[in-house]
Write a structure and sequence with these properties.
Layout lengths: L2 E4 L9 H11 L5 H21 L17 H5 L1 E11 L6 E13 L17 E5 L1 H6 L2 E2 L5 H21 L4 E6 L1 H5 L3 H12 L9 E6 L5 H7 L7 E5 L15 E7 L9 H15 L3 E6 L8 H17 L3
Parallel strand pairs: 1-10, 3-5, 4-6, 6-7, 7-8, 8-9, 9-10
Antiparallel strand pairs: 2-3
Length: about 325
């Protein structure tokens, strides 16, 4: 029997107060303690919103992350923070990772970025190893395959660390493939690289979620992966009819748009979910955002969380 659940993923927008506090801290008008107190307030409010919407799994919103790569870059010897770079075609930026030597993760440096969870209700979103490798400047190797292998080795260490923090669900976000409409041969390379994570999978649930473009080819290629448990689909850009039926995976349904401030209509999402249940069969469908919510004002992101919870509860009746 199908189950409809809900959660969010990725980077969550800072409140106006936290954004101003961060600026004041950078200008030495406030202390680190002031900044951490406001981050905690934002964090507590975000968790409160998710619990009020009866989300099955919780995320921390990455409120202390400067970008999706930075915790790994700053915690890895042989990796440096590079130039400010636009995040695809959005008005947000990240510092490009640079590989300048042999990579080694220092797990102690990760502690300030990741929670020590107390139960299995927590998930974490990471950039997929493929997107990470594609957006990294590697001065240590001239082969993309070697760059990808290096990132995979770091992720093996990272996942071992996350296991000690008792995370249960790991979502790898993959925007590069859909955005650039990559050929199947490159998606197969990504699939093969994921198989190397099998040695540290153990009790983890692994999800791969594509967005910023049609995700049908990514879904079709990863459908037979023995490492991936859940497939995330950007339904803002991907027609349901383009996807295979009766997939042997659970689904993350990206049904609220992380790049559009307009609030979706409840009945439109509900009708879509009913069609998706018929299409995919007896699966868990996790209602979610299609991409990171940090492109939206925090007040709008809050309404989208609330909407996901409302629709989820409709199917719990």
């Amino acid at each position: 029997m199908s189950k409809v659940a809900a959660f969010i993923h990725g980077v969550y927008p800072r409140s106006d107060i936290l954004s101003q506090t961060s600026r004041d801290f950078d200008r030495q008008r406030l202390t680190l303690s002031d900044l951490e107190k406001q981050r905690r307030k934002d964090f507590d409010e975000l968790i409160k919103q998710q619990k009020a919407s009866s989300f099955e799994l919780l995320e921390d919103g990455k409120l202390s992350w400067q970008d999706i790569f930075r915790p790994i870059v700053e915690s890895t010897s042989g990796m440096e923070v590079g130039a400010l770079t636009r995040w695809f075609d959005n008005n947000t930026f990240y510092r490009q990772p640079i590989i300048s030597g042999k990579l080694k993760l220092d797990s102690k440096k990760l502690d300030k970025f990741f929670l020590s969870t107390i139960d299995r209700k927590w998930k974490v979103t990471l950039a997929s190893p493929f997107t990470f490798a594609k957006l990294t400047e590697d001065t240590f190797s001239t082969s993309f395959e070697k760059t990808l292998d290096s990132i995979i080795e770091i992720y093996i260490e990272l996942l071992a660390y996350l296991e000690t923090k008792k995370y249960h669900f790991v979502q790898f976000n993959e925007p590069f493939i859909p955005y650039n409409k990559l050929k199947k041969s490159e998606i197969i390379l990504f699939k093969k690289s994921l198989s190397k994570l099998k040695e540290v999978k153990r009790d983890f649930v692994f999800a791969v979620s594509g967005y910023f473009g049609n995700t049908a080819e990514l879904v079709k290629t990863l459908a037979e992966s023995d490492v991936v448990d859940v497939l995330g689909i950007d339904f803002v850009t991907t027609p349901l009819s383009s996807l295979p039926k009766k997939l042997d995976k659970d689904i993350i349904a990206g049904v609220v748009d992380g790049r559009n401030s307009l609030l979706e209509e409840k009945n439109v999402i509900k009708s879509f979910v009913e069609k998706a249940i018929k299409h995919f069969g007896d699966k868990t469908i996790y209602l979610s955002n299609n991409s990171d919510l940090d492109l939206l004002p925090e007040t709008v992101a809050k309404e989208k969380i609330k909407l996901l919870g409302i629709v989820r509860k409709e199917f719990a009746k």
